[in-house]
Structures are given as structure tokens and as C-alpha cells.
Amino acid sequence: MKKIYITTLLFSAIITVQAEEESKKVSLTLGSDFVSSYVWRGAYQTGYSVQPSLGLEAGGLSLSAWGSSDIASVGFKEVDFTLGYSIAGLSIAITDYWWMGEGHQNYFRYQSKTSDHLFEGTIAYTLPLEKFPLSISCNTMFGGADYKLSGDRAYSTYIELVYPFTISDTELDVSVGMTPQDGLYASKTALVNVGIGVSKTLKISESYSLPVFGRVMANPHSEDIYYVFGFSL
Predict the structure, then answer these.
(1) Residue 194 Cα distances to 39, 85, 207, angstroms
(2) Alpha carbons 81 and 61: distance in angstroms, whole number
(3) Global pTM?
(4) How confident is the chain (233 residues) per 10-residue block, as mean pLDDT?
């Protein structure tokens, strides 16, 4: 786990230097989504949820925090941190996931075999084609609590294709996600997430508009389907 700490410190140092050198280009984002249910990569997590986010970006480097809490209960809680870098359609990132829930007070436990965190590496690329902006991402767990029943590390991997397009003033996207091996998403190579999403901005008044979105998702492997509606603030 020491390699993870060193990598995190290096990323943080790079971000700090970049922010100092290009202070005028630093951007800060703050927002939150409210969703009818939380479904992640073809798997249901919990019901009505609030999902706040905070991000800092400078010169292609980014540091972001994202969370999710169940509105109807105090049981589900997730807090994730991501360090990333993007250039010319190519993105790389390292994410620290933690979703053990309220009352499970062991967040700062990082020791191998006992940590509840999941560490994931991501590489993504969007084709530089205006009429065909297809993106592909590969996400692989490389540390933390990602193990098979046998006790071997699972290296759970999720690969996704996303194609965005627009009809009138409405944004849509079609996505297909699969796992190539036994792991967190399925016990074998499987198609686990097929969906279509719609997002639109509703004009509430002359000075205020509300972004809303909806998504239908099916998991062919588990033979389940979901519909999620939400809005952003």
C-alpha cells in the first residue's frame, strides 16, 4: 500500500505546482445531484439519494470528491476521491472508493487484507471525431478489498463504450458496459450494463433553469432493469 500513498502524494504535489504556475486557469466546481435511485455499473446500490460533488482542475490535472447518501435512511454512505489528468481526449485517473455505510467507522484503515477501500485505475479515450465522439474506458481495481472467494486478488475490471448525441436541444447517450473476468461485477465474462440516458435543461424562470436527467439501464447478466430520474443543483 506504500506505493499507493507515494503515488497519491506525487499527484497532489503536481496539482499544487500546476495550480501555482497557472493560477488564472484554476477552476472550482461544486454541485449535487438528487436521484430516484443509485445504480452503479449495472448494480443497484440504494434508493432516493443525494450525491454532492466538489472538483478542482488546473491545466488538465484534476482532484475531485464525490459522495452519495440515502435520503430515506442513514444506512448507505459513500465517499470517493479521484486524481486525474486529461489531454487531447485521453484521460487517466486513480480513484479511492469507500461505501461501507453509516456507522462503519474504519475509514482510515488502509492495511492490506483489512481495508474496506477499493482502489481503481482508469484510462479513457474519446475519438477526435466531431460526428462520432465515441468514448471507451477501462477501469480496473488494483488494491484494497477486491478479492475473489479463493482469497486471490480479483482485479475487477469494467469496460464501457459511450456514444453521445443530440436530438433538438436534448442530449442523449447510449452506453454498453461489460466485465471480462470473474470479479466484483460478475462471476465470469459478462455484459452487465446497457443503457440510454437523456438530459435536458428546463427553464423555470427568466433567471433560473434546472438540469434534469433520466436513464434506463439493463443488466443482461443479472436479468434486471432500472430507471433512474434526477436533477442537478
Answers:
(1) 12, 27, 37
(2) 14
(3) 0.87
(4) 43 47 77 98 96 97 97 88 97 97 87 91 96 97 94 96 95 98 97 98 92 98 98 96
